């Protein structure tokens, strides 16, 4: 047991931080130190923001690498190896570059199972957002694909679809091409 000089309570030693530099336990207990740190953080948000900005300026890649390791258990080398195994493109749509943010290239997002935490691949922003909004549910993704296939007609160009028409707005004119049907109220 040890006495906390902040809250005035006797607490077990597990409630105190060990100070290896001085070879003693801290005088304030863990809850008191946490409370003090939180009140300081709330009172001085500008100092925390400035320190964070300074760290980012010094080593921006270090922060990204730390997040990769902490969130997904991936090192930078493992991320690069996974990206190379996908042919340096999005695992779903095959996009070679991710959407630009503030004029900068963004890294591809690490797609992972939210239940097991297992990494599935690297995705562009659009694909990652799409499956995320569908709740990572394969049945909903299939239903969305069926919906799109049922309601879209492509122009049949050899390079893929250059124009997309809503099926209810399209008529075929004796095989000569596409014509828009009249929409009521237009």
If you had to describe this structure to a student in words, what would you say it looks like?
The chain is of the alpha+beta class. It has 3 domains: 1-43, no CATH class; 60-136, His-Me finger endonuclease fold (3-Layer(aba) Sandwich); 148-186, no CATH class. It is 40% helix and 16% strand. The strands form 5 sheets. Strands 1-2 form a two-stranded antiparallel sheet. Strands 3-4 form a two-stranded antiparallel sheet. A two-stranded antiparallel ribbon has the order 5-6. Strand 5 (109-112) and strand 6 form a beta hairpin.
What string, H for helix and E for strand, traces the elements in order?
A: EEEEHHHHEEHHEEEE
**Mean of pLDDT:** 79
Q: Helical content, roughly?
A: 25-40%
Global geometry:
elongated
The CATH homologous superfamily of the largest domain corresponds to His-Me finger endonucleases
Number of helices: 6
Strand content: 15-25%
What is the fold named in CATH at topology level of the largest domain? His-Me finger endonuclease fold
Radius of gyration, CA atoms, in whole angstroms: 28 Å
Alpha carbon gap, first and last residue: 82 Å
Based on helices, strands and strand pairing, what is the structural class?
Answer: alpha+beta
Architecture per CATH nomenclature, i.e. the level-2 architecture of the largest domain: 3-Layer(aba) Sandwich
Physical arrangement of strands within the biggest beta sheet: 1-2
- The total number of structural domains is 3
Major sheet details: 2 strands, antiparallel
Low-confidence stretches: 160-186
């Amino acid at each position: 047991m040890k006495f906390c000089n902040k809250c005035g309570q006797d607490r077990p030693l597990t409630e105190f931080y060990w100070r290896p530099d001085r070879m003693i336990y801290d005088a304030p207990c863990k809850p008191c130190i946490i409370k003090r740190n939180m009140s300081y953080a709330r009172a001085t948000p500008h100092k925390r923001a400035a320190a964070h900005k300074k760290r980012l300026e010094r080593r921006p890649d270090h922060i990204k690498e730390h997040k990769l390791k902490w969130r997904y258990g991936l090192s930078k080398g493992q991320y690069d190896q996974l990206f190379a195994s996908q042919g340096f493109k999005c695992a779903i749509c095959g996009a070679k570059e991710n959407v630009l943010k503030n004029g900068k290239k963004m890294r591809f997002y690490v797609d992972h199972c939210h239940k097991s935490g297992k990494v599935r691949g690297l995705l562009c922003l659009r694909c990652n957002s799409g499956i995320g909004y569908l709740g990572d549910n394969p049945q909903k993704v299939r239903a969305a694909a069926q919906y799109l296939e049922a309601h879209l007609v492509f122009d049949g160009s050899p390079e893929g679809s250059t124009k997309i028409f809503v099926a209810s707005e399209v008529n075929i004119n004796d095989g000569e091409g596409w014509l828009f049907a009249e929409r009521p109220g237009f």
